[in-house]
Amino acid sequence: MASLGELERAVMDLLWAGQEAATANKLRDLLAQDSAATDGIAGHQGKDLAVTTVLTVLSRLEKKGLVERERGTRPHRYQAVSSRADHTADLMHEALGSAPDREAVLARFIGSVSESEAATLRKLLGKN
Amino acid sequence: MASLGELERAVMDLLWAGQEAATANKLRDLLAQDSAATDGIAGHQGKDLAVTTVLTVLSRLEKKGLVERERGTRPHRYQAVSSRADHTADLMHEALGSAPDREAVLARFIGSVSESEAATLRKLLGKN
DNA sequence: TAGTTGTTTCTACGCAACGTAGAAAATGGA
DNA sequence: TCCATTTTCTACGTTGCGTAGAAACAACTA
C-alpha cells in the first residue's frame, strides 16, 4: 500500500519541498505554477486543477498515512508525515523486504551503485 | 512501469524459482499446487486457474519486459529475463533514482538496516 | 486431407486505484 | 440571518489486473 499516482506524487513533492504545512488552496496554486513552468513559453494551457481535486488527493494521501492534517484551523493545514528521504528509504526496504535472498539483492544493488555513492555508503557504515 | 499484481508476482516467483524455462501448463499446475499447500488441510477449494489466465498474465509480463518467450517450440516456453535478485535491486534503484537527495536517502536506508546486513554491506563494499 | 486435440490469441467483464470535479453540507464572519 | 470559503460526498472516465470464454492456429493421426 505505498505506490503513488502522478498527481499524488506531485502533491507530496510540494509538501516535501516546503517546510511549512500548506493549505489546499496554496497547493493548488503551486501545482498551477509548476505546470505553467513545465509548459514553457507555450503558455500553461493544461492544468488548473479544481480545489476539490486537490482536497480529494489530500484525503487519499491522509488515508495512506503519508499526510497529516490539522483539523483545528479553518483552512485545514496539511503536511507530510515523514521526509522524502525517509519515505524513499522505506520504499527501498519494502522492495528488499519481500526477498528471500536479501544478501544477493544487496550484492546486486551495491554492484550497480556509482563510486561516489559507494564512498558515501562506506562512510555511513563506519569503515572499520 | 514496474509494479506487479498478485498473480503476476506468483508467476514470476515460480519462474525465478525454477531454473528451466516452463510452459504455461506447467505453471498452471505449479500455481494450483502452491495454493493447495497454502490452504493447508482445509482442501484447496480456491485456485484452479484456467490456462488462458496464465497465458494472459505471461503475455502481460512479456510486455513489461520481465519475461521472455521462446516462440519456436510448440508449447512456448517462458523464462524470467533477469534473476529475482537483479530485479529487486532494480526496484531499489528505481525508488532511489527519482530522489534529488540520494545521499540522505542512503543514510536513512543504512540507518534502518539490521546489523548483519550492515556487515554484509561492509563486506561487499570492502575497500580491498 | 480432414478430423481431433492441445496451444495461443482475441476479446471482454468486474473490480480497484487514481485523476478529476460538481453538488451539497458545514463553518465562520458580516 | 445571509454570504463566502472550505470541506465532504458522490460520481464518472481511464487504466491495470484477475479471470476466462470463444475463436484461431498448429500438429498429429487416421
UniProtKB/TrEMBL annotation, chains A, B:
<keyword id="KW-0804">Transcription</keyword>
<keyword id="KW-0238">DNA-binding</keyword>
<dbReference type="InterPro" id="IPR005650">
    <property type="entry name" value="BlaI_family"/>
</dbReference>
<keyword id="KW-0805">Transcription regulation</keyword>
<comment type="similarity">
    <text>Belongs to the BlaI transcriptional regulatory family.</text>
</comment>
<dbReference type="GO" id="GO:0045892">
    <property type="term" value="P:negative regulation of DNA-templated transcription"/>
</dbReference>
<dbReference type="InterPro" id="IPR036388">
    <property type="entry name" value="WH-like_DNA-bd_sf"/>
</dbReference>
<dbReference type="GO" id="GO:0003677">
    <property type="term" value="F:DNA binding"/>
</dbReference>
<dbReference type="Pfam" id="PF03965">
    <property type="entry name" value="Penicillinase_R"/>
</dbReference>
<protein>
    <submittedName>
        <fullName>Transcriptional regulator</fullName>
    </submittedName>
</protein>
<dbReference type="InterPro" id="IPR036390">
    <property type="entry name" value="WH_DNA-bd_sf"/>
</dbReference>
